[in-house]
Specification:
The complex is a heterodimer of chains A (539) and B (1189). With 539 residues, chain A is α/β, with parallel strands linked by helices. Chain A has 19 helices and ten strands. The longest helix of chain A is centred in the C-terminal third of the chain and has 30 residues, at 465-494. Chain B has 39 helices and 34 strands. The chains are: A alpha/beta (539), B alpha/beta (1189).
């Protein structure tokens, strides 16, 4: 129970000043009188929210930490990386429609749907533990806990923990621990008792897991639309994930594992002359990342409709999260001589912190590029967050820190300016405040100025996929047209026919390899290949 | 693309208009193989046969499919095959488009093309000069805009389509037509004229229906309602679907509704031309005005024709037509049971279960008791003028039901009642008896009109009427669940009195009307619904919630192959989910009680009852679920009972009498003479004048949006105002006071210090190494010319969002800097008219408080700016954190609040820079109140260059601003303290509004505070609760002592993760109310408020644990749901009155106890030692406020 029961007895502090026998008699008299008058004693019962976060170090060996919320690759590689530190980790399945319905029933009304998906997913898992494996609630509460990410500035995402507690209470799992993993590490919700030790080692492992998963996903989405044998890419992804997980868990053999990944992908037979529109999938972080019903399985749908999807690596998101405190610190330090001290530390220390933060950001980039290079990921750049912020600022003030901040606006501008995608599909939960309430409004101006980028914002409600698919098809139709025109233009410009391209590829199979990237000229990859071959032949 | 528009006599653009259900046969096709284009929409199927390479249409047809898409397509194809020679021959190719086309593509061998693209292709081919297209379909609305790409020189299409929500589409019109009850042929003859327009919320189909019902009820002529509806739909599309873009000329209007309804075309014309005018769009020369916005002759067939054009782009051998036989085979076999995953068990597992259920729940037919010939029946009459039907009950003085009558609303409620009364009277007279009506009670939507016209003895709020009827019949119950046509009411009882209640809000998620409409769509009478639903052997799972979404779900499921019976069973099973999970919001109902009564007209449908009973029993196995024997008339019965009670008490009835009532005549008038002229909204009002044969006349006024509209003339208004002032004195309305105070000028700012004056308290400038430069600082002033220039600057600020939290700061800041108070201009408070005029710019659709900002900017641009009195700046700062009540730790603002200034900039500079065009600079630069250093730096960076202010001036002005803000807060809290202490002293209830500061805008709060005042309660706002720790200590003493909180404003005991100012303040307000025995709470939230949603459960827990009477009004939106708001507030007031009596009783007892304790103590002390310390009496005895009422 989370409500405090009414206080017993009606004696007030002042009464104690009476001689004891008098006070006692008075008390007895009051009780009788209250009974006679039918007056309940004491104050009203009051609600107190019960928060369960105790997790001690000694419980670590017997407690399974449940993890979910990103792509399959992210969840599994992250789990493997953290297992290395001695945690017992289990990955929940990707949230689906059923999880959504469950979440909707027990969370607050009008929450954004990632809350319904993720909370419902946990509920379902715990119910299965109880109903199918016969564990008692007490046992589940003792043996399991869940870690969830938080902190998106002032957006509902940071308040999901509240929904977890509400839903768990409603379903009968009062006492189940849900810990917040916040980017501001000093958060009190992170679990009392030191069970979850968020130190440098832990964070490095988390980052390694996430970066490797980004690389696998980028390779997957680049290759799959062109595979000659359906399923070959997915099989390579499964094998790659396994070798990377093994290396992460054992803490060695990472270079060999990454090379193995490269071999896996290089071996997938592909036809890179297929003309496909490139669709950049942007939006709210959960909706753009999940691979389940949370975004109507949009990546798979787009591929089915003949598109190549460019997904956003979480690394960019992590760098943006790191950018925020670093930017603020540096700014306060700069204002210090004019406006006086805003923090307790000396400005020198503040500047040192800023430099340290930059160092961490660089380390992440280097890890990404080196790992990517070893795994065969070519020609992918993590954007410079400072530049993105600066670019977006005239349209989307960088002081706004909710959700994806300026990221959506900045990326849309990038895709428009550099013509690296035919279509930007921005997917967000219905009523997402920063994304559909603000970013979309600002982006409408950008698309007006950049009509050659097709921009489609889509809100997900958890159901009604048919209508969303229809709207996506509406834009994809035009994107396909653009890709075809680019391919035709590339062929015409280089004076080639498709047959000539094919015969050239037969002679130089390296050009047709899954990992090969032609120099960028068009958004369409096939057009780039035609252009590259044209140039080779003309030299 | 882009060939010349065809001019052939039988090209698509020239074929004669078709009516539904006909086809045109043209001369046999010769030569080339043919192309078929099929457009399968949500309500109709369109088919064209075209000869490739020409715009020639050989055959075309348009049919409603009544949700039998494949069957209808098959029928059309068979007809086409019979009438167009060579169509079935090899080489014919087929292309499909439309929301229902996808599943048919494979069996037909067709290629699918998305419908918007198909329309785009057709328009590109047929009309190279068209720049915009608006198409309304059954459940779709599309806007296509063409623009020239400067870089490539091509005409590019920008497309927009509604997502799931079918608001503003043909479906909305269809549903509303049912409510208006106008024959389709007549609708086609309605034209837009200078008729008065009424407010209809087209934002949602359900809202629109509600408004239409209300207008119909108050007797507004059908033509006016239709035109208002058309206009609302057009505005909805222009403001949401167009995403702020302008539909530039030439414009094509396409789709069924556009084609058939002239008034709709005219509404589009009027509004589009208005935007051209507002936005200064140049009209193309040499085009006749009527061709600028045109409905082409074949507006229905563009998508089908476009699908064929698409075919030209793909390989010649692609999409070969497999013939109608292939489709027939698919319908017979391929369509079956592809629905495994989405189907669940049926309503009844087997015949035995069904039989047992029927035996228990079938309501025996009502047999009116025989009346003795020659007798005079004295009876009370109860009338329930509901949203879709009117019910009347005759009850004898012992509470026995003598007869009842029911009528689907025909429009005017007076007409309905006249007919019902005549019917009841005739029935009595048939038995040679006479009828005397001794009491008359009215309830329901139409109760106001009836009370006025027929002088009813009582006008009972529906909820109370329903409750009384159930309690009278079943005794003590825990829950009454009433499902009517439009509303769902769930009442929670304790000791026969209303404990709390939940009503469906204006968003009537899947109610009785949905079941009825579904039955009608399937051609089944609503009385046969259950028979059909019980036949289903499985039931598809619908996702519960919005009725419009449910309807589109139904269309999708039907497309998947579910049959009529299954769909009906599935929909019946959604009903309990909607009631308990969507409206009541309690996933575990076992804690609510175990004695249920089901009533309301929908309970005549046994399928709905079975679904409800099963749902309840599954969760509460020992539940007793009773079915009211007169489910539809429960309200009318309650009204009759209440009338009997009142007449008995009073000794006479006010009812005009049966004969007079039957013979009453009435006239409705809505014109310029009835328009309300008491404010700029100028609401179109309707006067219903009734006259009884004895000559007495009554006027009932409807259609107003504020209380001033209830009076007909200036004299009456004066009296009304006097009464208002008197009421405000007795019952303060702090919401109105706060709304005035926050934006009022008058804070005495200090003048800027003289140049060279020593700077007080400013941080000394520091060197790079952190050492303070030790020199005296002197105040730096800007030059005289700059200062003088500032006196001329006019700054406009929108009265929206966080400006409500910071206005005193801004006023004082600018006034200190030398901008005169008269030059600081705030936009007016929001209003329907303002929103209608200024809401066409935004590209996003957030909460209403966010969306209305564009109308405020528009107001500043158009109403406050003129060449004579120009605005120099419009200032709408981006404020990531605000000057909230909870301190700087919890000071963040919501993302929409923070981001709206940027969104506004995008919206007003996108196509045309509206600011630059008027010489105004729009300033949306950020200011962060959360970090004082940033606040100073931000403001100096913003206003330093613009107003030429120095850093010292900036900082001095900030200080003045903060002082003004603090003074305003202190004043508000002082008023709050007075009111809180007075209600405590007087033992009364006050109502605390839990809302965000900006909800106090009269255009957002929809008269809630005034209604509460009218019902007899003082209104207290969140900001007016004193935040002085010493004053608060007595309320939070126990929490502080227990260490749950460290400060009276701390909310970590209930919400450890709170971080946004306004949400946290609301939760704190709930905590305060839970500790103040004299407060009831109305919790207000806007639809789509992302920051309030996580507090719904929290506030509910806090208030219900402490047993605080409270009412949640979530989902406030642009439209003013007067009807539903009043029902809720009146029901709330009813519950509150019961609580007030209890509170009075409790206070009396506490006082008695205190007195007895005092005497006892004196007695004991007198008998004890003389030197005993004198203690204070027990706290509880002194402070009745702490106890539980």
């Amino acid at each position: 129970m989370s409500a405090i029961p009414p206080r017993e007895g009606g004696a007030a502090p002042g009464a104690t000043e009476l001689p004891r026998p008098v006070a006692a008699e008075l008390q007895a008299f009051e009780t009788t009188e209250r009974e006679r008058l039918g007056l309940p004693a004491g104050q009203r019962a009051q609600w107190v929210e019960a928060v369960h976060t105790a997790f001690t170090r000694s419980q670590r060996d017997t407690t399974t930490v449940l993890l979910a919320g990103l792509t399959e690759a992210h969840d599994h590689l992250l789990a493997a990386a953290v297992r290395r530190l001695g945690y017992r980790i289990e990955v929940l399945p990707t949230p689906d429609e059923e999880a959504f319905q469950q979440g909707k029933a027990y969370c607050d009304r009008a929450m954004c749907n990632p809350a319904y998906f993720t909370v419902g997913n946990l509920l379902r898992y715990l119910q299965r533990l109880r109903d199918e494996q016969g564990l008692s609630v007490a046992e589940i509460n003792r043996r399991y806990l869940c870690v969830t990410a938080a902190g998106c500035g002032p957006c509902r995402f940071g308040l999901y923990i509240n929904e977890y507690r509400k839903a768990l209470r409603e379903v009968g799992f009062e006492g189940f621990r849900v810990l917040l993993f916040n980017q501001t590490i000093d958060d009190q919700q992170m679990g009392e008792g030191g069970g979850l030790e968020v130190n440098a080692k832990f964070l490095i492992q988390v980052l390694r897991g996430l970066i490797l998963a980004d690389i696998v996903n980028l390779l997957k989405y680049r290759t799959r639309p062109y595979e000659r044998v359906p399923g070959a890419t997915d099989a390579a992804v499964t094998r790659s994930r396994a070798v990377l997980m093994e290396a992460l868990e054992q803490g060695r053999g990472m270079i060999a594992a990454l090379r193995q990944v490269r071999r896996e992908f290089a071996a997938i037979p592909v036809d890179r002359t297929r003309v496909k529109p490139k669709v950049a999938l942007l939006g709210e972080i959960w909706a753009e990342t999940t691979e389940g019903d949370g975004n109507y399985r949009l990546p798979a749908f787009l591929e089915g409709e003949g598109a190549e999807v460019e997904v956003q690596p979480l690394t960019t998101w992590i760098l943006t999260l790191l950018w925020e405190p670093r930017f603020d610190l540096a700014r306060l330090a700069r204002l210090w001589p004019r406006y006086g001290k805003a923090r307790e530390e000396a400005p020198r220390r503040v500047w040192l912190k800023v430099m340290a933060a930059r160092g961490v950001e660089q380390a992440i980039r280097i890890t990404f590029y080196v790992s990517g290079w070893l795994a065969g990921l070519r020609d992918f750049r993590i954007p410079n967050i400072d530049r993105l912020a600066q670019q977006a600022h005239p349209y989307y003030d960088v002081e706004q820190r909710a959700g994806e901040m300026f990221l959506e606006v900045a990326k849309t501008m990038e895709y428009g300016d550099h013509a690296t995608a035919h279509m930007v599909l921005s997917v967000k939960p219905f009523g997402c405040m920063p994304s559909s309430g603000v970013s979309d409004g600002v982006q409408s101006l950008l698309t007006e100025r950049n009509p050659q980028t097709l921009f489609l914002p889509v809100e997900t409600t958890g159901d009604g996929a048919v209508n969303v698919y229809s709207r996506v098809q509406m834009q994809l139709f035009k994107a396909t047209d653009m890709a075809r025109r680019e391919a035709q233009q590339a062929l015409t410009a280089s004076g080639l026919t498709l047959a000539e391209v094919q015969s050239h590829l037969a002679r130089y199979p390296k050009l047709g390899n899954a990992l090969h990237r032609s120099p960028h000229r068009y958004a369409c990859n096939a057009a780039n290949l035609f252009h590259e071959i044209g140039r080779r032949l003309s030299l | 693309m882009g060939s010349a528009p065809p001019r052939a006599p039988h090209s698509l653009a020239r074929v004669q208009k078709q009516t539904v259900g006909t086809s045109t046969a043209l001369p046999a096709a010769q030569g080339d193989s043919l192309r078929i284009g099929i457009d399968v929409g949500s309500t109709t199927v369109k088919l064209v046969v075209v000869r490739p390479g020409t715009p020639q249409v050989l055959w075309q047809a348009y049919e409603r499919h009544h949700a039998h898409q494949p069957e209808r397509v098959l029928e059309l194809l068979e007809r086409a095959e019979a009438e167009v020679p060579g169509l079935a021959a090899p080489g014919t190719r087929v292309f499909v488009t439309g929301s229902g086309a996808h599943p048919l593509a494979e069996p037909l061998g067709a290629r699918f093309v998305q419908e918007v693209n198909a329309v785009t292709l057709a328009v590109e081919r047929l009309h190279p000069d068209v720049m915009s297209v608006a198409e309304l379909g059954g459940q779709d609305a599309k806007i296509i805009l063409f623009r020239w790409n400067q870089r490539t020189g091509e005409r590019q299409a920008w497309t927009s389509m509604n997502d799931r929500c079918a608001s503003g589409t043909g479906a909305t019109i269809d549903k509303c037509l049912l409510k208006i009850g106008m024959p389709a042929e007549d609708v086609q003859r309605v034209h837009l004229s200078d008729r008065p327009m009424h407010h209809i919320a087209a934002k949602c189909g359900v809202f629109a229906e509600m408004d239409v019902v209300n207008l119909t009820k108050t007797g507004v002529p059908a033509e006016e309602i239709l035109c208002s509806l058309g206009d609302a739909i057009v505005q909805q599309n222009l403001s949401v679907l167009a995403r702020g873009n302008t539909l530039k000329p030439r414009v094509l209007l396409l789709g069924g509704p556009m084609f058939y309804f002239p008034f709709l075309q005219e509404c589009w014309r009027r509004r589009i031309e208005e935007t051209w005018h507002d936005r200064g769009i140049a009209l193309p020369k040499g085009v006749a005005p009527e061709r600028l916005i045109e409905v082409p002759d074949n507006a229905l067939f563009y998508a089908a024709y476009g699908a064929v054009i698409y075919g030209e782009r793909i390989a010649e051998e692609d999409a070969p037509y497999r013939g109608s036989a292939a489709l027939r085979a698919f319908i017979q076999a391929g369509r079956q049971a592809r629905f495994g995953s989405r189907a669940g068990p049926p309503l009844a597992a087997d015949a035995d279960e069904l039989a047992a259920f029927r035996a228990a729940y079938t309501i025996p037919p009502f047999e009116p008791p025989r009346l003795a010939a020659g007798s005079t029946v004295r009876a009370a009459l109860g009338v329930d003028g509901g949203s879709t039907s009117t019910k009347a009950v005759l009850m004898d003085e012992d509470g026995r039901i003598l007869n009842k009558a029911y009528r689907l609303s025909k429009g005017n409620p007076i007409q309905d009642v006249k007919e019902l009364l005549a019917e009841l009277k005739a029935h009595v007279e048939e038995q040679d008896a006479a009828l005397e009506v001794t009491a008359f009670g009215a309830t329901g939507y139409a109760a106001g009109v009836l009370e006025n016209a027929l002088r009813a003895d009582v006008n009972v709020v529906e909820t109370v009427a329903h409750m009384q009827s159930a309690v009278n019949l079943f005794g003590e119950m825990d829950i009454i669940c009433d499902v009517g046509g439009q509303d769902i009411k769930v009442l929670f009882l304790k000791n026969g009195e209303l404990r709390s209640f939940r009503l469906s809000n204006q968003c009537s998620a899947g109610n009785g009307m949905l079941l009825q409409a579904t039955a009608e769509q399937f051609g089944v009478g609503v009385s046969d619904y259950a028979e059909h639903a019980f036949q289903a052997r499985l039931a598809p799972r619908f996702s519960y919630g919005c009725a419009v979404f449910l309807d589109s779900d139904r269309v999708n499921l039907q497309r998947e192959g579910f049959g009529r019976e299954e769909l009906m069973a599935g929909l019946a099973m959604v009903l309990p989910k909607n009631i308990w999970q969507y409206i009541v919001q309690v996933p575990r109902i076992d804690g609510l009680g175990r004695r249920y009564v089901l009533q309301g007209g929908t309970q005549y449908n046994l399928a709905a009852v079975k679904a409800q009973v099963d749902y309840i029993r599954e969760r509460v196995p020992d539940a007793q679920v009773h079915l009211h024997p007169h489910p539809g008339e429960a309200g009318a019965i309650g009204a009759a009972m209440e009338a009997l009670r009142v007449v008995r008490q009073r000794g006479h009835s006010t009812f005009v009498g049966l004969e007079q009532a039957i013979a009453i005549t009435y006239a409705t008038r809505t014109d310029e003479s009835t328009r309300c002229g008491f404010c700029t909204n100028r609401c179109p009002r309707t006067y219903i004048t009734t006259r009884t044969p004895d000559g007495s006349e009554a006027i009932y006024i409807s259609g107003f949006s504020c209380e001033r509209g209830t009076v007909p003339d200036v004299e009456a208004l004066k009296a009304f105002n006097r009464e208002q002032r008197e009421r405000a004195r007795r019952l303060p309305n702090l919401a109105a006071e706060e709304a005035r105070r926050v934006f009022a000028s008058g804070f005495p700012v200090e003048p800027l210090p003289e140049p060279g004056a020593p700077v007080q308290g400013a941080a000394p400038p520091r060197g790079w190494l952190g050492r303070a430069r030790l020199r005296k600082r002197r105040f730096v002033r800007s030059g005289a010319a700059t200062q003088a220039a500032r006196a001329e600057v006019r700054i406009g600020m929108p009265r929206v969002l966080d400006m409500w939290s910071t206005a005193p700061f801004w006023r004082a800041y600018f006034e200190t800097l030398g901008v005169p108070a008269r030059n600081l201009v705030f936009s007016r408070e929001s209003g329907e008219r303002m929103f209608a005029d200024g809401a066409k710019y935004g590209a996003v659709d957030p909460c209403y408080p966010g969306k209305v900002a564009q109308a405020h900017i528009h107001d500043l641009l158009t109403h406050h700016h003129s060449p004579q009195r120009p605005l120099r700046y419009i200032y709408f700062p981006t404020m990531p954190s605000t000057l909230g009540a909870m301190g700087s730790d919890i000071g963040l603002s919501c993302p929409v609040v923070t981001g709206t200034p940027n969104v506004i900039k995008a919206a007003f500079t996108k196509e045309v820079d509206f600011f630059a065009a008027r010489g105004i600079e729009y300033v949306d630069a950020a200011v962060n109140f959360g970090v004082p250093v940033l606040q100073r730096a931000h403001l100096h960076a913003t206003w330093g260059p613009r107003l030429g202010i120095t850093r010292d001036e900036n900082e001095f002005a900030i200080e003045q601003g903060l002082r003004a803000q603090a003074a305003c807060e202190a004043e508000l809290q002082q008023r709050g303290r007075e009111v809180l202490e007075s209600i405590e002293r007087e033992g009364r209830f006050g109502v605390l509004l839990l809302s965000r500061p900006y909800h106090l805008d009269s255009g957002l709060i929809h008269g809630v505070p005034e209604t509460l005042q009218e019902l007899g309660y003082p209104v207290i706002t969140l900001r007016s609760i004193p935040r002085d720790p010493a004053w608060l200590e007595r309320f939070f003493r126990e929490d502080l002592a227990a260490g749950r909180i460290t400060h009276p404003l701390d909310i970590r005991d209930v919400w450890p993760e709170a971080h946004t100012a306004n949400s946290a303040h609301k939760v704190w307000g709930a905590k305060f109310a839970a500790r103040h025995a004299h407060l009831a709470v109305v919790d207000l939230s806007s639809f789509k408020c992302g920051h309030d949603s996580p507090t719904y459960g929290l506030i509910d827990n806090i208030l219900t644990t402490a047993n605080v009477p409270y009412l949640a009004l979530h989902d406030l939106d642009a439209n003013r749901p007067t009807g539903t708001l009043r029902i809720r507030l009146r029901t709330f007031a009813h519950a509150l009155r019961v609580r007030e009596e209890q509170l009075a009783e409790h206070t009396r007892k506490e006082r008695e106890l205190a007195e007895r304790l005092r005497r006892k103590r004196e007695e004991l002390l007198a008998g004890g030692r003389d030197d005993a310390p004198v203690g204070v009496p027990p706290l509880a005895a002194l402070q009745p406020a702490g106890g539980q009422p």
